[in-house]
Design brief:
about 300 residues; seven-stranded mixed sheet; about 15% strand; globular; binds ligand LSGSKGXN; isomerase; delta(3)-delta(2)-enoyl-CoA isomerase activity; lipid metabolism; fatty acid metabolism; Enoyl-CoA_hyd/isom_CS
Length: about 300
Amino acid sequence: MAALLKRSASLLRAGALQKHGVLTKQALCLFSTNMRMFTNKISVEMDGTTGVAVLTMKSPPVNSLSLDFLTEFTISLEKLEMDKACRGVILTSALPRVFSAGLDITEMCGKSAEHYAAFWRAVQEFWLKLYTSNMVTVAAINGSCPAGGCLMALVCDYRVMADDPKFSIGLNETKLGIVAPFWFKDTMTNTIGNRETEKALQLGYMYSPADALKVGLVDQLASADKVETVASTVMSEWLAIPDHARHLTKSMMRKPTRDRLVTHRDADITSFVNFVTKDSIQKSLQMYLESLKQRKR
Ligand SMILES: CC/C=C\CCC/C=C/C(=O)SCCNC(=O)CCNC(=O)[C@H](O)C(C)(C)COP(=O)(O)OP(=O)(O)OC[C@H]1O[C@@H](n2cnc3c(N)ncnc32)[C@H](O)[C@@H]1OP(=O)(O)O
């Protein structure tokens, strides 16, 4: 399986997915048709009777979204999307306190412009695949999820978060001295409205679960040990709606936001590369990474 995944990842890097937005037959046929799929960083368990897959992130220490992680995630999602038996996906984390720490900061530090462009294309692809999925997507948020982690939850159809005040959720980019791109902003605005997003983004605000519920950033809280069970209950409610009617409605709601990124995709990559290669931004990111390490001492 590891070898198959490696081969598929290299196909993806070569542009099979990125260029056309779909996996080629060549890439897809590399996968087994088993109901369980394990990669280095993700496991997927599909229940054939309910049509629901649980995609569990298991990339210690913090499920950060590295280029490899994003590639594995996108491949796993595409495989589920192509499986007619799969109607819904629950996203969750195998790590005890973290859903996802967002984009892997080391992918944005000290690398070449080509690397930044490939990384950003993978971030865009990940967002596009999840945002436009025909499946019902429910985030079972069983830990903290800053920045890209919050984005992942926001693109799902429904969010259940563990009611633990130690956890937080939000787009905290300004705290790193960087700026959330327009499609991160659009995703948040579509969920909690313009005014709340304006405050949250400028302040890089991280919401407690209770505050996140208050502003509508998450839909429901559950005790930590019940998050996945509640997510499954929600999933069955959503799956009671006929698929075609639900996903045509989803697509109608999401098309303008999706089209905006698709139209400006290359310009967005150029803008990211120009931004992240600035000395001042590199310095900010290095300092932030260092501060994370210092916190432990
Ligand atoms: C034009 C557009 C330009 C730019 C747009 C870019 C958009 C960016 C989006 C992002 O997602 S940026 C990433 C933002 N993420 C964060 O700020 C999260 C930072 N991390 C934390 O707050 C915490 O780590 C935690 C997630 C709450 C977990 O805390 P915990 O105490 O459990 O772990 P610890 O802090 O000790 O971390 C362990 C280990 O992991 C490293 N780490 C943490 N987060 C990241 C990350 N996002 N990327 C890379 N590495 C990360 C941390 O440094 C520790 O490393 P160490 O063991 O070597 O010390």
